[in-house]
Amino acid sequence: MKVKIFLALFIVAGSVYAQSDSLVIKKIFSQALSNGKSYSSLDYLSNKIGGRLSGSPQAAKAVEWARQAMIEAGADTVYLQECMVPHWVRGAKEQAKLSSAKSKVNKNVAICALGGSIATPAAGITAGVIEVKSFEELAKLGKEKVKGKIVFFNRPMDPTEVVTFHAYGGAVGQRVWGAIEAAKYGAVGSVVRSMSLINEDAPHTGVMYYNDTFPKIPSCAISTNGANFLSQLISKDNNAQFFFKMDCKTLPDERSYNVVGEIRGSEHPEEIVVVGGHLDAWDNGDGAHDDGAGVVQSIEVIHLFKSLGIKPKRTVRAVAFMNEENGGRGGDKYAELALKNKEIHIAAIESDAGGFAPRGFGSTFPKGMEEKKKKFVSWRPLFEPYNVFDFTHDGGGADISELAKQNVPMFGLLPESQRYFDFHHTANDVFSNINKRELELGGAAMASLIYLFTFYGF
């Protein structure tokens, strides 16, 4: 099906676009909903390959899968960008137990090691627990009360935030830097409340970091149900004990790759619109929402353009980035090569917020691009028939953030966010929790925005 581009332009409420743009976008959405490949692609990535943390054999398989998927989608060119990535392994399943002679409690609880953590000693660690809600509260306690204890960071995500990513941002710092702060005061371990807005038994993993100035201590996440129980227990018995055992370790860096597929622009091939998601995913689930969805939606942009006969004036480049979860090496390498090769990127788009129904696009513009922002917002009426209406929030993505430092405006797909942190970084992030129509709609939304970028420039 070939799509013709009419030259007549229309101005509606400040919007400037061709008469046929609404027709093209309608065809993109119709094609995605009737013949889209995102769902079947994600089925393979999730169920045949599964969790694919950087450096793992599964990550290597995912690279080859993405390369072949881009070829099959119809990319004019497909190639790999080499990058060295960290290789952390979880090891044997983690164990944890709460005990209190006073309360007559001896209870197993669900934990998972945080990515990058060291292991506990082979026999595990048993110690008393100090609960805090903030680093400031921890500092006030000082070494006298913290030394030899396990610090329990129990600040919940704020349930009053309608945009759940804002709630995540308000709580995740304790996971990322908690071990550093606890070690400052002599703690022997740290445990953090899982980043979730629901009460559940599944712990949520995620990256954590060390600072060589302080001792490295093992760090884990406890499920929200476990966190609630632990908090209640130590409020009744300040001598309650927490035992945990982890077998994780960091191996030498491994060679891996970003996977890049292009449709060459017909008039301005030197101008590039890049769209991507990250190929790596945590090892406890299969990474369906985070971020298999973003990867297959990015590849779907190529498929939709090719199947509809859309010939972009500017180059479309889909990227499956490696190592977003625990290092960002793929995004760094992409930006490094873009600068080295003096590439001209006019826009960068990332999908890394789950495979739920799209509601809009976040954007971040460098200073001096006010007119470009107005142009972007003026396209909103074209998306409203598909319930894609939010063009006002900030946005982008971790993998394109380094590219944005080169004065490239960046955009992020904004799916409905209410359920995302039910699955994020857990064993529940699996293909069965993906809705086909919602996933395909996200790919269509991105393809439609990229169509506008490639036709009108930016």
- Going by CATH, what is the homologous superfamily of the largest domain? Zn peptidases
CATH first level of the largest domain: Alpha Beta
- The structural class is alpha/beta
Q: How many separate helices?
A: 14
- What's the architecture of the largest domain in CATH terms? 3-Layer(aba) Sandwich
Terminal Cα span: 27 Å
Count of individual domains: 2
Kindly report the CATH topology of the largest domain.
Answer: Aminopeptidase
Helix content: 25-40%
- Structural Rg: 23 Å
Q: Give the oligomeric state.
A: single chain
Largest sheet: 8 strands, mixed
- Uncertain segments of ≥5 residues (pLDDT<50)? 1-15
Mean pLDDT: 95
Shape: elongated
Number of strands: 17
| Physical arrangement of strands within the biggest beta sheet | 5-4-11-7-8-9-10-6
Strand residues, percent? 15-25%
What does this protein look like?
This protein is α/β, with parallel strands linked by helices and 458 residues long. Helix content is 36%, strand content 25%. Residues 1-15 have low confidence and may be disordered.
Quick overview:
36% of the residues lie in helices and 25% in strands.
Draw up the topology in text.
Layout: E1 9-12, E2 15-18, H1 21-35, H2 38-49, H3 57-73, E3 77-89, E4 95-100, E5 105-108, E6 111-113, E7 125-132, H4 135-146, E8 150-153, H5 164-171, H6 173-184, E9 189-193, E10 219-222, H7 224-236, E11 241-245, E12 249-263, E13 268-278, H8 288-308, E14 314-321, H9 329-340, E15 344-350, E16 358-364, H10 370-378, H11 380-383, H12 401-404, E17 410-415, H13 420-423, H14 436-456
Parallel strand pairs: 7-8, 8-9, 9-10, 13-14, 13-15, 15-17
Antiparallel strand pairs: 1-2, 3-12, 4-5, 4-11, 6-10, 7-11, 12-14, 16-17
